[in-house]
User: Fold this.
Amino acid sequence: MIKRRLDMLAITNFVKRCFNRDIFYTLTNLFGLILGVTCSIILILFVYHDLTYDTHNNHEDRIYRVAFNWSSSSQKSLSATTSSGLGPILERNVGQVESFVHFRKSTESELLFNSDNLSFYESNLYTVGNKVFEIFSHTILYGDITNALTAPQSVALSSSLANKYFEKENPVGSTIKIDGIPYNVTLVFQDLPDNSHLKYDALLSPTSPGYGNSNHLWSINDGFTYVMMQDDYPQHGFHTIYEDFFEKHMAAITRAGGYQASLLLEPLNKIHLYSESTSDLPRGNQSYVLIMCAIGIFILLVACINYVNLSVVQAIKREKEIKLRKIIGANKKEIFIGYFKESLLFSFISVTTSILLVFVVTTYLPIELLFAKKLNLTIFSPGQLISFSIGFWLLLAMFSGLYPSFYISKIGLNNMLSSDAGAINNYLTKALIGFQFIITIGVVASSILMYLQVQYLTEKPLGFSASNKLVFKLQNGENFPRIPSILEQLNQHTAIQQTAVTNNTPWQGSFVTAIELPGIDKLHSMEINRTDIDSNFVQTMAINIVEGRDFDQTRDNFSGQNMSNNVLVNRAFVEASTWDDAIGKSFMAGQRKFTVIGVVEGFHFQDLQSKISPYVFYPFNFDLSHFPKNYLQSMSAQLIVHHVDGESADAIQHIEQVLAENGIHENINIKNLDEILAVKFDVNANQTLLMALFSFICICISCLGLLGLTGYTIERRSKEIGIRKVLGATRSQIFLLINNKNIALIVICSAVGATLAHFGVSYWLESFYYKDEINFMVLPLSVSLGGILSTLTTALLVFKITNIHPSETLYK
Assistant:
């Protein structure tokens, strides 16, 4: 009975002591632990978000994306895009393919949606067959999936898009115009989860105008093909099945073309992090996820080490209480359990507070700007959240509370009566402090090195000029013959310097296709990106011509069926070919023969991490009168206007005026090219910002722990400090007395952390084709930072104690 009362009294005294006599240590300990746990939970959400991509699909273990792998004598390519004709052939000839669906990308990055008085440009739309609802899981709000996309000019909308144009009404049966073509809304589905690698807001039926359904295996790779395999399908079995399929449908063509081809299956739930395909949608970065996971573990370790050290400090100050409990008969087990209960309570407060903070941060702060994705606790089900909270609480309590409880319980009465009763295990404490600074300086050094790489990419020349450029889309191919006149009228304004036209800017998307060119002894095949341009594009964009000439309006035909066969290629095209001199050489694309008249310098049109790929500029066709009218309605052109610096407003006003004078009254979305490229060439700026933020948090937690331990050391040695001051010791001498060994330890551990950061960042840089050399000056700077931080942290407390008169410390 007495022991139980003493246990309750101990808990009560613990709470009173924490928030009364030991308020400094309590707040330091609690703040560090809550900060560490909060950051760790947020990073757990991020990692969990990326690891569970596409798992919302009921058949996610049976769905695969077909990737096209081909190689020639000088080039290899694994492309995520395939022909729309591939799926039907696979379904007919490969028995284990139960069903397929092909998502055809629009040739435009944005299409104009119009309903009543609302007009906006929308992206994320695909042409797809009705099987999409059989293979992929959707929550249907309105409509019937049975035949939603079977009729011509049908469209299925996401809930956000439907609410945008039809408010809260049921839009099924309504009409919405897409680039001037009326579509019947047949279905509304709930917005796809954020962790879906293929996101779309609108699905168009494949029989819609301008989106003919090819049934040829070797047409342009225009989209993504997904297959759903049978339940008993083993993933590795596709290659065996594929051998017969290859010999029947592909071998003759590939061998004649001088290249090898094969099909690979990519599991749906692995695409986001593990796919290596090109011509793909934005994917996750496996290294980035590992880095965030490591940082989360490191921050939690630093916080727990703080808790261990400061808990031991607080516990040793309770030697009288421990002595009393042992005198009345308490054994080691009872004392251990009593102190571990306190650790459970402290951990419970920390985890509960952290979860509330995570909810506030993810709900009310724009955290998605840092992580480039939506993070919130709703990613877990209620049961998962409860299980996660309890598990995290117990794990934290065990990791941070076991050692302090064990350490206190093993102190005997003889130890407590000695003069060293209040001493901490010096070696373990220093080891934990050193480990803290290995982690902290390692994270700091990594952040600096990653920042330098991002700066290198940011400052790297792109191969063209994006400044002072306006881009807008002109819809409907019937307007193409008027484009030369429109450009001429635009050029008459003093705010406009140059204009150009293209079917689609390379940075907003381009066609990917294969060509054949004569090699030394056989045909040589190559995958290229292509865009159609006029004779002003290269000069307007300030792309450098290194060989040959530019397009010339007087020498190259840009209209009608007798289009010029002359083309421009980039330097990467020449390097990938078998040619020593490209000027005058020819290659085949389909049934047409094209001749190279000029070579441009390499320019970036993909992300800055990838090597520049072969690119071909074809002449832009201003006269499409020989095409069917319904096809023309789906065509569009991108006009580029180079304006005088600081006069973009006048240029925009003039553009709108000229278009109105030419009878073009639809909503024109005029954008700054540099804003488009800021998104296109995102060089992991968010990563470095996050690394800097978490580096700061690591520093704060480590310094809090060092502050608490230094305060404890000063408190124990306060009388000694008073005596030394009486004997004439200076402030600097007292500082060295307290910290000389700690600072040396921290500097050594900082060097270890900086060295580990060097190896870690070297591995990270392997994912970049263009990378800067590691600046080794970062390593000594990081070591110096560790020494400076430890000095400044402890100097505050030393300054405080040395300002106290010796009589006060000696009397105390």
In short: Confidence is low (pLDDT under 50) at residues 208-216, 416-424. The chain has 26 helices and 24 strands. The longest strand covers residues 523-533.
